[in-house]
Amino acid sequence: MTVNGEAVHYRLDPETPLLWALRDASNLTGTKHGCDSGECGACTVIVDGRATLSCMISIASLEGAQVTTIEGLSSGLKHPVQQAWIAEQVTQCGYCEPGFIMAIAALLQASPKPSEEAIAALPNICRCGSYSRIRRAINLAAASTAPAKADVSPTHRLIPLSSAEAQSPGQ
Ligand code: FES
Ligand code: FES
């Protein structure tokens, strides 16, 4: 497969989840290990233009795939979503950040002006409850230059971004 523009041949058990190939074999530790069960979105990367939960897909199914991780999204944090993230001071602990940014980048590539429903459908969870700032960052990124990469649509299940927002005190 290709990871962040470089050809990679993993000599691992073919059933190894992409998450662990990236983190352990490629030392791309920006992709985070959260629930390990497709629930949190911390492990989101972009595979062939689609937001993908890397804990849920084995490397056996990715022969020839184009994989982009947070490390490959841009140089110098220049991607519009990264810029918006900084501008809106979204970061708290930062653990959800790479997965969220990759999911949003994929969303905006597929739909530069995403609907409220599409934003609410992002599967990612922020345990620090930064949902209001995340929402502002999405709006800011959408209002700026269209993201450069991927023709994507998020593949994951629904996430209660809007309902979680309502539960976030002080946001
Ligand atoms: S670690 Fe993959 S969805 Fe949580
Ligand atoms: S900033 Fe801490 S989990 Fe989102």
Question: Would you kindly provide a written description of the structure presented here, covering whatever features stand out?
Answer:
- Residues about 150-160 and about 160-170 have low confidence and may be disordered.
- This protein is of the alpha+beta class and about 170 residues long.
- A hairpin with a 2-residue loop joins β1 (about 1-5) and β2 (about 5).
- About 35% of the residues lie in helices and about 10% in strands.
- The radius of gyration is 15 Å and the shape is globular.
- Bound molecules: FE2/S2 (inorganic) cluster (2 copies).
- One FE2/S2 (inorganic) cluster binds near residues 40 and 55.
Task: Using brief descriptors, characterize the structure shown.
5-stranded mixed sheet; alpha+beta; Ubiquitin-like (UB roll); 171 residues; binds FE2/S2 (inorganic) cluster; 7 helices
Walk me through the topology:
Blueprint: E1 2-3, E2 6-7, H1 18-25, E3 44-47, E4 50-53, E5 66-68, H2 70-73, H3 80-87, H4 97-110, H5 116-120, H6 131-143, H7 161-166
Parallel strand pairs: 1-5
Antiparallel strand pairs: 1-2, 3-4, 3-5
Helix pairs in contact: 3-6
Bound molecules: FE2/S2 (inorganic) cluster (FES) (2 copies).
